[in-house]
Model the fold of this input.
Amino acid sequence: MRWSAQELSTEQTGALPGLARLNNLVRSVRTPEFAGITFHEVLAKSALNRVPGQSAMPFGWTINPYRGCSHACSYCFARPTHTYLELDAGKDFDNEIIVKVNVAEVLRKELAKPSWGRHPVALGTNTDPYQRAEGRYRLMPGIIAALAQSGTPLSILTKGTLLRRDLDLLVEASGVVPVDLAMSIAIYDDELQQSVEPGTPSTAARLATVTAVRERGLDCSVFMMPILPFLTDTKAHLDAALRQAKAAGASNIMYTALHLRPGVKDWYLQWLARDHPELMSRYQELYATGAYARKEYRIWLAARIKPLIRAHGLERGREDPATGGVRSSALGRPQQGNPDAAASRPGDGQDPFSRFATDRSAVAFPADDRDRTDDRGRSAVAFPADDRERTGRSASEGLALGPADAAVRPAAYARTRRSLIEEELPPELAPTLF
Ligand code: SF4
Done:
């Protein structure tokens, strides 16, 4: 098998307690290239995860090739999932990475089942599929190819610049299935970014990745998630962020305020106490009642950022002249050199994108924000201003799709009215996803 040929520096014989009970643990590995990180290679029994309670949503399915994430964002909502393995939600989440080495093989079997409905599948909704481990394990090319070959639309949300390695494959996939890409870039202050997201590529590198995606003709959303209260919510920071995202070619912006669920809050507040102790009391008050920032803050933030997003031309969606709706150029593009692929789709004679037209005229603000702020950016609640200046390997696996494959592609999702990414982020879930 592919992973058995990889060079080992140290094989850990004493697996951690929770992992030891997993009968699918293959081995635990450390290598000099990943100082301080242990990879726990497991044989996954399944690859597709159904999203609980989301059965009515077209996406409804996710794949997580990794558990834990070396990007090490102190605010990461996924941290508590590590405790299921008797690993802690802090350092262990950053350094003890579970790798599903057989995920692509298992996925192919699942996608081949007659019962698979080619529902859109989201990657990056839990841990980052293009974290550093992906450079070693190369799981994503097999996943992307398997999804595309089966006629399954996909979306990817990442902070990883390694996405560029797979752009050829993603472009090819987008010729046959809808492919939505998004980069998570929330912090445009290098010092702050290195402090709160110490394992991530720089903001500049991520913006360059957005540009690379756009140069290949695919849309690329930028997720400003999370916006950190009193740190990245100044007008100057938001304006600079949006200007840079626009200059990089971002197709649109989505944002949410910081969400601190139990198990994440303690870890984030430890970081805050160390780096910004002057803000501790304000955070304690802002998150006194739960995981969400107080509603007044969210309303205030919406009123501040919404007009800026509009001013920078980064509102969600682009008008489709054929439908009057909004479309994504990443959705089901005709495959180069295979005009039959487009011709085989339902609704021939129309703009090939129109059948995937999306209704994305609004940025996905939390529902209360939409209700209580107006389009001129005024808030019903006057939140205290704090404008202090903080701102200051190409994939080798081809898809080899033929005309027969093309015939099965778009019909299953022609009814999908909204972007896959947007479907990933219903307002009540959005704050928990990056
Ligand atoms: S927020 Fe995303 S990139 Fe950051 S640690 Fe969590 S999964 Fe990784």
Remarks:
- Residues 69, 71-73, 76, 78, 127-128, 131, 159, 434 surround iron/sulfur cluster (CB under 6 Å).
- The longest strand covers residues 221-227.
- Confidence is low (pLDDT under 50) at residues 1-9, 319-398, 401-434.
